[in-house]
Fold:
Amino acid sequence: MSQITEDDIKRVIRTDAEKAFRMIIDAYGSKLYWHIRRIVIIHEDADDALQNTFINAWRNIASFRFESSLLTWLWSIATNEALSLIRKRERQSAVSLDDVDAIFAQSVEGNSYFDGDDASVRLQNAILKLPLKQRAVFNMKYFDEMSYEEMSGVTGTSVGALKASYHHAVKKIEQFLQND
Amino acid sequence: MQLNDEIKKNNPFKVPEGYFDTLTERTMSAIRESGEEADAVTEKEKPVRRQIRLVPFFSLAAVIIGFAVIATVMVRVVTADRAATEHEAGNGLYAELAAEELDTYMIEYELMEAEEAEITETGQGISSEIIIDYLMTEDIDINDIYELL
Structure:
């Protein structure tokens, strides 16, 4: 199957919203899932946040004028959903959730869908020490390899501030990994 | 341990088998269950009719705004005349009010100066890094943080 482009979706959405939306999920579903998953850690939470992202996008698709990138718009909704979920989780938890074991202990699924070696567990724990928004900034740059301009579109933050934030995050993570 | 491509390639997160194969169907079902209507504007339903219906409301609104502008201008002309007369008669009263306001301003200014001095005293030794960390923990916008520091 050939890759679906934003132009294809733009053409179809004028005549068949549901078909266009299926194309959107096919094209961006897995990318958005991994972005959310790296922030929320637990698969079940990532699935909930992803469903909410698409429900939100479906509700507001008319307000999206295709003047900016569809991926950036979806990424922005997904980031907000993931961060809201984390804030809610942290409010409800009596213990600090700044390492993967603490998060698994709080969830029903535990670590069933996590199979990391020592290095990746340490990296995840270092990322969890970052403030919430900086965590999203780090993930977008390091794992999703987004450009600062794309990240600026997602977060509404200036390119300069994002560069500083990412640089600061890398320094903190490397320091944590050395000391851990 | 350093951040490098090797550590990045190793994805420790797994998904249930077939998760992505059924994602589209499950998501469309969730959308239907949520009862949300697609707000998409298709070519079949361009908002021409809405524009026609809105025309009388826009005309009515324009007339009301016109009246409001005329009424405001008239009221301003009348009150300006009256204020000029009162100003001449009540110079003493205004002078008294101005003096009171000045006193209040001076007290507030002294209090602010005292607070600033206290903050500077206690704030010595706090690095901007700690301040950035704290503000980010509080979810203050990154833009604001880097522009302020």
Summary: The longest helix of chain B spans residues 48-89. The two ends of chain B are 31 Å apart (CA to CA). Residues 41-49 of chain B have pLDDT under 50 and may be disordered.
